[in-house]
Amino acid sequence: MAVSLWQRLAARASVPVFVASGKDEPDEIQDMLWQTGRIKLVFTPRHASLLVVTGQIPVEQSQSLAIIHDQLPHPRATLWCGGQPCFEFIAAKRAPSPQTLVASAEDLPQRIKETQKQLLSGKRQSEPDLNPDRPPAPWQGKGDHGQGGEGMMGGKPYGRPMAMMEADLRDGLMLDALEFSVGPFYHGLPAGLMASVSLQGDVILKWQVESPPFPTALPSVFVRALHQDTPLADLEIWRVRVHLQRLARMMALDGLDCAAVRTLRLAGPLPCITQAGLGALQKQVGSLEKHLRKRGFFALGAGIGELDAQQANLMGGYVGRACGMQEDARSTSKPYQALGFTVSCQDKGDVQSRRLQLFAEVHQAIALAAKAGREEVMLTHEEIETPVGRLTKRQAPKDHSEMLQSLLPGMEWREALMTLASLPVAGATREGGWQ
Amino acid sequence: MDLANLLLIPLIAAVLILALEKCLRRNHSSYPQARPYSGGGDLSSHAWCRFHVRYYPMALLLIAFEMEMMFMYPWAVVYVAEGIKALMEMGMFLTILALGIVYAWREGVFRWQ
């Protein structure tokens, strides 16, 4: 009686979900789940009851996915959306049951709620561990406490070397450096990015990229504008959407969940927005910016993740403009010039500048979209300024994860995550994603 | 009788707590579950390592000034009897401490890291 009451109450609560993103436009699904009631996206698998795998997971990362899977507490289940389950991950133990595959992203919220109900009512069995239940680094020392091992530290008592002292980057006090690998499913990193990290306390000593992030799919409207006449208003509306989605992720990282959801709700219906709706959108974005200013969203990024001129030049796009570079492909395009486009810039090149730059570009893009929509301006150009950098017929925006190796050492972990969220690290693909 | 009660009550309480813990205890986590979370990555060195406790100098200063306050209570009693002499002694003591604060300030102890 009591147990069933608990089960019923638990079934009414929000479903904690951990999302592991694979290839092919995974962010759209995450953004949709953020806005769905009774689903709570959590940042670690330990707080989740369902694992949602979006997009296709490369075979070489299936073992990392198995590690994440096993860290979910019981009862647990996995849902696959937008990609085929990797059978190496499922292991030879069992084949994926048909109900774990979700055909379209629209069905996902409903399937999540149903699966949680089935788990809690006992109609669906909790998934067993995929990795064997034995210590990952078994005891290798001599004697009960490793006292018989080699050297002062007792050799390798648990199959891993003891942490050794390394030079400190902050105040010169040398302490032990902790070495580990992070990703490819760490919530604060771009999907797919795997790095080998050395930490001293919370300061990053070394950041070595093991595998680059999955390329993100550019909205097809930007690729189309390279080849054929495309309404300029559409380009600007998609720019607003992508910028708002990036800002929402930064807000979520700062703990401003409500503001993040509010931002995503503004971004979601943008492709269908009317001319009349653009005026209201401008006001809503202004009010959001004011709210965030009061909450310290911009001030929080001051002095963090500052790029030098060379790094800013390499990244280009809004990152370069946040550093004061007057680089924008739109300034060489006649339709934009006719609309009175001018390049807007910041001067410091830190996280705060990038946040301010994104908001400035959102305001500018809404105004341009309204004007271009009224005058029905069309655009074909050999160089298109996308929200993540310059796109030509020969070249898409590149991957910049290698730059992190020189940028992140010396930062605290929190600063590194804020910096990563403010940069378009992943390269872009021309495909339209799985949408 | 009282002594027997005194021994019996904690004994019963201990047995009850242990029994309750056994009933409510969740299953032991498996090794894959207990693995530290790093987004699918793994540790390559041992987790036994020394961290820099960044609030250490501030904590040390707090203790130092708490001790100072402790000396001031008996001093207040002595001051009534000794008068100006006790006041001068305390003034010297506080001056030395104040120099310590100025030095700590210069070294950036009060700057939170």
Automatic annotation (TrEMBL), chain A:
Q: Where is this region: Disordered?
A: 115-156
List each copy of the NADH-quinone oxidoreductase subunit D domain by range.
301-373
Biological classification of the source = Bacteria, Pseudomonadati, Pseudomonadota, Gammaproteobacteria, Alteromonadales
Give an example GO molecular function: quinone binding
Q: Which domain of life is it from?
A: Bacteria
Organism of this sequence? Bowmanella dokdonensis
InterPro entries in alphabetical order: NADH_Q_OxRdtase_suD, NiFe-Hase_large
A Pfam match: Complex1_49kDa
Q: Report what the protein is called.
A: NADH-quinone oxidoreductase subunit D domain-containing protein
Kindly give the Gene3D superfamilies that the UniProt entry links to this protein.
Cytochrome-c3 Hydrogenase, chain B
Automatic annotation (TrEMBL), chain B:
Which keywords belong to this entry? Membrane, NAD, Quinone, Transmembrane, Transmembrane helix, Transport
Subcellular location(s): the record lists:
Cell membrane; Membrane
- One Pfam match, given by its short name, reads Oxidored_q4
Top-rank taxon: Bacteria
Recorded GO CC terms: NADH dehydrogenase complex; plasma membrane
Q: What are this entry's molecular-function GO terms?
A: NADH dehydrogenase (ubiquinone) activity; quinone binding
Q: What class of enzyme is it?
A: translocase
Which EC number applies? 7.1.1.-
Membrane spanning residue stretches:
6-24, 59-80, 86-105
Report membrane topology. Answer: Multi-pass membrane protein
Q: Which reaction does it catalyse?
A: a quinone + NADH + 5 H(+)(in) = a quinol + NAD(+) + 4 H(+)(out)
Q: Which family does it belong to?
A: Belongs to the complex I subunit 3 family.
PANTHER family reported in the protein's UniProt record = NADH-UBIQUINONE OXIDOREDUCTASE CHAIN 3
Report the protein's function. NDH-1 shuttles electrons from NADH, via FMN and iron-sulfur (Fe-S) centers, to quinones in the respiratory chain.
Protein name per Swiss-Prot or TrEMBL: NADH-quinone oxidoreductase subunit
Organism (species)? Bowmanella dokdonensis
